[in-house]
Specification:
The chain is α+β, with helices and mostly antiparallel strands. It contains 17 helices and 22 strands. The protein folds into three domains: 193 residues, Histidine kinase-like ATPase, C-terminal domain (Heat Shock Protein 90), CATH 3.30.565; 131 residues, Ribosomal Protein S5, domain 2 (2-Layer Sandwich); 91 residues, MutL, C-terminal domain, regulatory subdomain (Ribosomal Protein S8, Chain: A, domain 1, 2-Layer Sandwich). Helix 14 runs antiparallel to helix 15. The termini are far apart. The relative contact order is 0.08.
């Protein structure tokens, strides 16, 4: 007796539909693809019951004839491609010929359509993938697809759908993502006869971003452009202070197609670098145009994954573009607000100057050295709040600087540059420090002596759980070493010596423990010199952990706070 048998067409269709139609939002996604490909200028999506009861997508696109209507519900019937070679030159959103047949097989579907050259249109009705009727009817130019009772004939799939509210959230997200790159099209989303979202057609991409993300975020977004051989990228980047715990506002498009790809998301995060705290995501929209022959979008039925023939190059281009844009914007801010600020007030006659930050580590009880050179770009220090925040007068407002985060950035970059150049300054201790650790920590530290020595830490096992600290980096002379090394153990445990991320994590811990703490009193001269050093750093806006170093209040904001202006 044979054990292998050919599946019935109905079963095969429902299996295929399961790959394309996961939930109501999948239906909206596929129908939006068709409407955009049809050259629509207006697209209206109407939903009832979170899409479980009814979904209707209507457009004013090119429309379909009677013969095309009959063919559109047949599997693998498409006008987008003709041969295998066409798969590597795809410029449309749809191309497989699976969407409408898959939707029809798990719902009751009506398709009404009229080409612009015809006086009347036709309406095709299906139920569970079976043709019910096709008839002539009066209708406007374009196509309207009505999907009712989704998964009515596949109860096993239907029970996995969430509440109408949850399914509506997925539809809203899909609708928004598809509307963003096509600002020339008017999009409207309705639920239970109420308009939820309306994106009017516009030539201004920032206006559409404003509708989606809010005016405050859209106005603050920076624009970046990159052009190389066969690759063009336009991006809108929100500054790091608008970061979120969710990555739901990371939008990436390739040739107008919404892509959800971890590799591309990682490129975006690497571009932002240490401007983001761990677990935070930026708000960003990236629009990439690339030669279709350089990518493969035939990877997944949802068509939201992509493979690049030269993925490493694309990755590097994205990282470089974002990094350059953010750095240039911050430099422009510094040039605008800090240049020409007033010099710090002179010390009273006869009062000896306090010891400055001649190195990134202050507060050593030594004879005072010569005063540091203060550049004209350093903002005027006017006070210190709680011995934690340095208050400065910039050109057009008030600057508040977190002294620990600022010094942490200085220590981090100084350590990293010394490490990369092989000139990390190390101080040998005349009297070694005796340190005690837990059994687990002792084992890891004992196995990592060679790695620690790369970072200027000479740790000798003295027996049992005891170690002797014989040498340390000069910048970390005031560290509480038991606490520091205990915190460093998790990073050492997962370390890979040649991994830049591992090196950054270790240096970040070192910088955090080596930096001046909040609550520590600084003199006016020390604060000024700290700012002078900070402005010389490669990334003076954020500490190595991504926390902001400063906050800026423009005079207009301050005047609004005190009701001096509206």
């Amino acid at each position: 007796m044979n054990h292998i048998r050919i599946l019935a067409e109905k079963v095969a269709s429902q299996i295929a539909a399961g790959e394309v139609v996961e939930r109501p939002a999948s239906v909206v996604r596929e129908l939006l693809d068709n409407s955009i490909d049809a050259g629509a200028g207006r697209i209206r999506v109407s939903v009832e019951g979170g899409g479980k009861r009814q979904i209707r997508v209507a457009d004013d696109g090119s429309g379909m004839s009677k013969d095309d209507l009959l063919l559109c519900v047949e599997r693998h019937a498409t006008s987008k491609i003709k041969s295998v070679s066409d798969l590597f030159a795809i410029k449309t959103l749809g191309f497989r010929g699976e969407a409408l047949p898959s939707i029809a097989s798990v719902s009751k579907m009506d398709v009404t359509s009229r080409p612009v050259q015809d006086l009347s249109g036709h309406r095709l009705k299906t139920a569970g993938g079976r043709l019910v009727s096709i008839e002539e009817t009066g209708c406007p130019t374009g196509t309207s697809v009505m999907v009712r009772d989704l998964f009515y004939n596949v109860p096993a799939r239907k029970k996995f759908l969430r509440t109408p509210g949850t399914e509506m959230d997925h539809i809203t997200d899909t609708f928004s993502r598809w509307a963003l790159p096509y600002s020339e099209i008017d999009f409207r989303l309705e639920s239970n006869n109420q308009t939820l979202l309306h994106f009017p057609a516009t030539e201004n991409q920032r206006y559409r971003l404003s509708t989606l993300l809010g005016r405050r975020v859209a106005d603050a977004m920076l624009e970046a452009t990159e052009k190389t051989d066969g690759l063009e990228i336009d991006a809108y980047l929100a500054p790091w202070e608008f970061s979120r715990k969710r990555g739901d506002r990371v939008f990436f498009y390739i040739n107008g197609r919404n892509i959800r790809d971890r590799y591309l998301t990682r490129a975006i995060l690497e571009g932002y670098g240490q401007r983001l705290m761990k677990g935070q995501y930026p708000q960003i929209a990236v629009f990439m145009n690339i030669d279709p022959s350089e990518i493969d979008i035939n990877v997944h039925p949802t068509k939201q994954e992509v493979r690049f023939h030269n993925g490493r190059i694309v990755f590097q281009v994205i990282v470089r573009m974002i990094e350059r844009c953010l750095s240039s914007a911050f430099k422009g801010f510094l040039d605008k607000e800090f240049s020409g600020s007033e010099p710090p007030p002179p010390f009273p006659a006869g009062e000896p100057p306090q010891r400055p930050f001649s190195t990134p580590i202050p507060f050593r009880e030594e004879p005072p050295e010569a005063e540091p050179r203060i550049t004209k770009d350093v903002p005027l220090v006017i006070g210190n709040l709680g011995n934690t925040y340095i208050l400065c007068q910039a050109r057009d407002g008030l600057l508040m600087v977190d002294q620990h985060a600022a010094h942490e950035r200085i220590v981090y970059e100084t350590l990293k540059k010394g490490l990369l150049k092989g000139r990390l300054q190390v101080q040998t201790l005349l009297i070694p420090k005796e340190l005690e650790f837990s059994l687990k920590e002792a084992k890891i530290l004992n196995e990592s002596s060679e790695l620690l020595s790369r970072f200027g830490i000479e740790l000798e096992h003295f027996g049992g759980n005891t170690f002797l600290l014989r040498a340390i980096p000069v910048l970390l002379e005031r560290v509480v070493w038991e606490d520091f090394l205990s915190e460093l153990v998790p990073e050492i445990r997962k370390s890979r010596p040649e991994d830049n991320r591992t090196i950054d994590e270790i240096l970040s811990v070192m910088a955090c423990h080596g930096a001046v703490r909040g609550g520590h009193t600084l003199t006016a001269q020390e604060m000024t010199h700290l700012l002078s050093q900070l402005l010389e750093m490669d990334l003076p806006s954020n500490c190595p952990h991504g926390r902001p170093i400063f906050r800026y209040l423009h005079y207009q904001e301050i005047e609004k706070m005190f009701k001096r202006s509206v």
